[in-house]
Amino acid sequence: MAEDKDKEAINAQLAGLTQQLQIAQTVAMKEKSRSEELGNLVSRMQADFDNYRKRTNELNKRTKEEGVVEVVEKLLPILDNLRLAIQAIDDESISEGIKMIYRQITDMLATFNVTEIPALGEQFDPNLHNAVMQVKVKDADKANMIIEVMQKGFRMGDRIIRHSVVKVAK
Question: pTM to 2 decimals?
Fold first, then answer.
């Protein structure tokens, strides 16, 4: 009898331990699932942050470029006037001073990757040039060639800031 009581006590303890084990396994499964969810959430948040950082960097780059373009657009008429002044002034020392200012401005623009669009003697390209006149020429090889630049065009990298205003042979 005592043995039966001991067996019952052991079986009761075993049943209690089994029940505790099942509860612990259920809790462990829930915690594992929660851990995986949190891991996925962290991964998504990290990816979202990386995307945000990339978008912000791109926006900053575009904003800076827009600012440079806006300043350059306002500066180009001044360059045009300096070029006209150089042509109109007979005094060589004054003309040289204006040429120096003109070079300083064009050198500064070059630091922002702003360059003049080649035009004179080039084939007309409507993506780069704005033809305001056509002139008949006898030489058929010169057809569609730019024979005069009335206003220089400028670009910043691949972006056209101002098209060249040209006279084209036909």
Answer: 0.69
User: Strand order in 129-135's β-sheet?
Assistant: 129-135, 164-169, 146-151
Rounded CA gap, 88 and 95, in Å? 9
Spatial CB neighbours of 136, under 8 Å, sequence gap ≥ 6: 169, 170
Residue 114's contacts (CB-CB under 8 Å, 6 or more residues apart) are 68, 72, 154, 155, 156, 161
Instruction: Give residue-wise pLDDT tens across range 20-37.
Output: 999 999 999 999 999 999
Pairing state between β 159-162 and 164-169:
unpaired
Distance CA 146, CA 149 (A): 7
Residues 114-162 pLDDT 10s: 999 999 999 999 999 999 999 998 888 888 999 999 999 999 999 999 9
Task: Give the chain's largest Cα–Cα span.
Answer: 132
- What contacts 124, CB < 8 A, 6 or more positions away? 131, 144, 145, 146, 166, 168
Helix, strand, coil distribution of the chain in percent, nearest 5: 65, 20, 15
